[in-house]
Amino acid sequence: MKQFGYRSMQKQQNAKNGNGMEEKMKQKNETGKKKGKTKKNDFFFVCKHIRFSWGLIILALVIGSVQSIVTSMVPDATANLFDGDFSTGKLLGVAQTLAISLVLGLVSYVFRVFAESKSVLAARTSVWERMINAKMEYYDANDPASRLSMVTVDAQTFGAGLVQLFVYIPTMVVLLLSCVVQLLGYSSKLLMILWLLVPMHLIYIFFVGRWQQRLGKDLAWQIGDLTGYLAERIRNLPMIKSFAAEEKEDKNGVEAAGKLFQVYKRYNVYLQAVIHSYQSLTAMISTVVSVLWGAYLLKTGQTDITSFLAFSMYVASINATFLVISIVWGFVKDFQGRANRLARLIEAPAETTGKMDSGKVDIPDGDICAEKVEFRYQENDKPVLKDISFVIPRGKVTAIVGPSGSGKTTLIKLLERLYSPTGGRITIGDVDIEETNIESWRRKLSYVVQDAGVFSGTLRQAFCYSVEREVSEEELIRVAEKIDLYDYIRTLPDGFDTLLANWGSSLSGGQRQRIAIARAMLRSSDILIFDEPTSALDPETANAICRIIFEEFQGKTVIIISHELHYVAQADKIVVVNQGRMEGSGSHDELMQACRVYHDLVQEQSYKEVFSV
Prior knowledge:
- The chain is an alpha/beta fold.
- It has a domain at 41-347: Up-down Bundle (ABC transporter transmembrane region fold).
- It contains 23 helices and 12 strands.
- The strands form 3 sheets. Strands 6-9-10-3-11-12 form a 6-stranded mixed β-sheet, with helices on both faces. A 4-stranded antiparallel β-sheet has the order 2-1-4-5, covered by helices on one side. A two-stranded antiparallel ribbon has the order 7-8.
- Helix 3 (42-49) crosses helix 12 (305-347), helix 5 (73-79) packs antiparallel against helix 12 (305-347) and helix 11 runs antiparallel to helix 12 (305-347).
- The longest helix has 54 residues, at 246-299.
- It is elongated and about 115 Å long.
């Protein structure tokens, strides 16, 4: 099996469908390159949109620059001792210069590390905020593995690299220039060696830096692939074992690790070999050439021993500074390669929530009306929904039914404003829901999905997730009793403070579903959406869930999606969709007479299974 992991499978699907956002963007970039278009710099684009602590970065730069200037004076102070003057003043001058350099170096290091930590925090929080607020189109085109890697690895590398670029490299340049100025005080002829050192370092920085940038980008993608593959498989190890697929997944895991190894090999073997060879070569060349050139000037009387010694120390310092700049520059090019994915995230269309959203906060109560709604996931796709019109009466139970793939869940996504209709509109009262404040609208809803997820934490936290008020112990007990879960909770030593396993795996499917319903009760939302609430549950649990829905939410607007027609038959209204189109709406009895699709769906289930009580 040559392809593995979520992103690889998704790329195949995108290639098949021809509508993947990521693939289209890559094709667009390639086309732009072919036409000779200038592509914007992703690095500066990301810097512009992330709230870094620029004041702290500038302060670290200033302190580092002062430290570099003082450090450049150390060779000069030391060389002056070789004129035979060991007076107290001279010795104190050297000691003072060294002490100030050390203190400033320590202060500079502390501020640089602090600026780096704050920059990483700013990058990580900004990336997470962008990711949380991105529209669903971005999630459809980018797999969870790459998104996880962006928040962790990419944000870490980018934040740290930013300080390297704006603090460390400039302070090294200041040190380099300060050394040059100090050398000019001795003899301009001593600087002729820079004509050899500078081009050699610049050529290296240009070519090797570009290579390192490409490898850094490849490394980021491969790490994301492996992370996604392992996360998905580790979470589903019981399923792998139940299918006796250990050998197959073992091979896939080895191949995934092997692909990352190939990138690491180019990065850590070939690239590092070039870097170490370059460091050794430049150190040897600078030492030999500086000794030969200095000796020549000394022999011809064009310099003295003090200048020669200072020159030797400055050349070593200049070469070391160039080496540091080249190493840090390589790291900068590495994180510039990672900036590509962050830039694509920032470019992604974002939802506007909270204070940024200018939509109506006061949302009226009333019927929910779909008026000639059309929707397609991509511009050139066939419509998933077409000419959908129906009314969901306020305070009643409405069921949406239809064959698999008919567009039921897509309708719910439009109601939640995860997507926007590409035609028509959905209103509540006389207000288009697209004109409402998106946060206020979603607070008006409670959504219970099949196999409801429960984050790790305590039972109390699971019950109160997304409930933005204090919930008393008495209220928790009352709600737990209504969903028939309190007897179970009482048997637990820590009660509501019992810790849950990851994704609530220590609970049964029915228990997780009951907790999801309890959240809806505690939120007291006006509109409740149940997406296959009884799917994959045993009949007894399914009946209990259905009873809770119909009895505990009276007076609320309830929307149910379900294939189990003996539950939805008791709804006040049933909306039937098929292949993205409306087939009819009305009560169970009305649809049995007037809607062929609904009649056939009922007939597909045995009379005893559907209607027996």
